[in-house]
Amino acid sequence: MTFQQLKYIVALDEYRHFGKAAESCGLTQSTLSLMIKKLEEELDVQIFDREARPVAPTETGRRILDQARVVLYNTDQIPEMVRGEKERITGPLRIGLISTVAPVLVPGLFKYFTHNHPKISLQTEEMLTETLKAKLHKAEIDIGILAAPVGDPQLLEIPLYTERFYAYVSPSDPAFKEESLRTDYLLNRSVWVMRNGLQLYDFSKREKVWDVPVYEEFFEGGRVGTLIQIVEDNGGLTIIPEMHILLIANDLKDRLRPIAEPAPRRTIALAIRRDYLHEAMLNLVIRAIKTIIPGQMLENIVRADYIKL
Q1: Contact 156, 273 (CB under 8 A)
Q2: Alpha-carbon separation of residue 172 from 126, 155, 185, 187, 258 (angstroms)
Q3: What architecture is domain 85-162+266-297?
Q4: CATH class name, domain 163-264
Q5: How many angstroms separate the CA atoms of 259 and 191, rounded?
Q6: Which residues of the chain are in CATH 3.40.190.10 domains?
């Protein structure tokens, strides 16, 4: 088995066509087919179903392809390291963000890199937490930004900032007349949340008992803006992260209510593969986020001026 053969099977998986894959590899179609066939014989497994239209990997082939991408990713990093890869601040930078973070960070990230590092090609994508971690493992993204704890020993976690949650209350809801809301009040009523889809969730009937609500109790996925619109159209209340207050129109900010201590909080962290080499890129992302997040939310989190890998 050679690195070239791994590149050939990855190319075929991307193009799902022998002719196009061969052209991308600078080979004839027959040579590409022969090299892939030799790899299958060596491994004694069928990687691709050639009867499928278009050609597609088998179940075992998919696992081999996932590993091949990781091997090729690590292999490609070796010459980059020789060329002083750690100091490189050009080329693509792929960042995955959970959907409750993306709206508050993505605009500022693009502004920072466009103005300060135009040679970096920033690419961002919103995704669920498990999808984000899976893409990190497969080296399909460089950096992930998600709620801590990441809970994955194969990933390096760097805390970025901590934010409180606030209640967003409809004027028609009895809680609107209160200046602040207590946690025990929220835990004994129905609240609009993103869990298993959008729903009006009665916390008093939950199976787990929490002294303080945690991030996963409110958001499994989806945009916070959707929850706000649901409250506007249907009444009731929801819980939103502190940074989203900046995105709320001024004429709607009277709906916001602080939650009395102990208030629910979450820490947002940056996650990378433990073999990630692009030290300069990593520090640029952290520096960019420091320009977006208010200083009080960064206290005791990212304290180092430069993180060395």
Answers
A1: yes
A2: 33, 45, 17, 20, 18
A3: 3-Layer(aba) Sandwich (3.40)
A4: alpha beta
A5: 14
A6: 85-162+266-297, 163-264
Whole-number Å distance between alpha carbons of 21 and 29:
8
- In 3-state terms, what secondary structure has residue 155? strand
DSSP 271-303: EEETT---HHHHHHHHHHHHHHS-GGGTTTSS-
Reduced to 3 states (helix: H, G, I; strand: E, B; else coil), residue 84 is coil
Torsional sign, CA 80, 86, 91, 95? positive
Cβ neighbors of 200 (< 8 A, separation 6 or more) are 190, 191, 192, 236
Topology of domain 3-82 in CATH is: Arc Repressor Mutant, subunit A (1.10.10)
C-beta separation of 49 from 57 below 8 A: yes
**Structural contact between residues 113 and 142, judged by C-beta atoms closer than 8 angstroms:** no
C-alpha–C-alpha distance, residues 237 and 307, integer Å: 40
Question: Going residue by residue through the chain (309 aa), what tens digit of pLDDT does each one get?
Answer: 888 899 999 999 999 999 999 999 999 999 999 999 999 999 999 999 988 889 999 999 999 999 999 998 888 777 766 566 566 778 899 999 998 899 999 999 999 999 999 999 999 999 989 999 999 999 999 999 999 889 999 999 999 999 988 999 999 999 999 999 988 888 788 888 776 555 666 666 655 544 555 555 555 556 788 889 989 999 999 988 899 998 899 999 999 999 988 778 889 999 999 988 888 899 999 999 999 998 778 765 666 677 777
**CATH 1.10.10.10 domain extents, the chain:** 3-82
Integer Cα distance of 171 and 299 in angstroms: 34
The answer to whether 64 and 45 are in contact (CB under 8 A) is: yes
The predicted model scores a pTM of 0.68
